[in-house]
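lol ok so funny story. i was supposed to be doing the assay writeup but got distracted and ended up predicting the structure for this chain instead. priorities right. anyway since i did it might as well share w the group, maybe its usefull for someone
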Amino acid sequence: MRRFSSLVFALSLLTPGCMSVPRVPADVSPEGANILSGGTFSGVLYLRSVMVLPGASAARDDARFVRCDDQVPEIRVVLHGVIGDGVTHYCETARSALDYMVAIHPRTSTHIELHLAPVGHRLSMRRWSLSARVPRLHLVAPIFSDEDRTLGNIAGLVAHEAFHLPWFIHGDEHAGDERAAYWAGVCAQLATRGKLGPDVLLADALASKDAAVVASSSAARAVRLELERHVGAEGITVGSAGASRLQQHCRQQGFPIPAG
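and the output, tada:
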């Protein structure tokens, strides 16, 4: 997945205009960018999401909201310019990735609102949320013609951001660990989907004046280089020798993968 995702938190919430939000580089890959900032004030968590998908044409303004199930935390899918109503596979992928992270870190509890648009359709949005209990993450991802690529990207994105959030809420220094967040995304894909595509994290460091963007994209590249020892041109599937080595590496990173 050629994606970068950055989570930047201010030390305290002043006003939305005072929050420092990285500028999105012009060379964002088709997987897009999700940039989150936030803060806390009197026990209330504030999150601001900047979501961008690059493209030559703007996505149609006909968003359709679908609640995935009756579970809590809630997961909603928002379709932009998408023909058809089938969202089950998107919902199941997002739920499995979130459940995987909750099993690892029980304090992970966040609603998800996942915006989806066909790849190549431009989308740029900002969303805000305030919560004293369960926060809401607003995320964006493209729909590729290759369903495996679409679902792998969704699983990795949800796990990546779900890794960051509880550490921040509880004031832990791990909140800004981008390398660990990318490994969370990789291991969640292997654990919940049983495979990784050959295009996982095919990212180069982005040129930017913003240190957070540079750090996130550089971490993605570092993890990609580590993955090259395990993932071949055809990807990797649970049960293969490469997958066994990668499962062991995931465990060493703190992201165990159940046997089976």
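The chain is about 35% helix and 25% strand. Helices lie at 88-104, 147-169, 178-193, 211-227, 241-253.
back to the writeup now i swear
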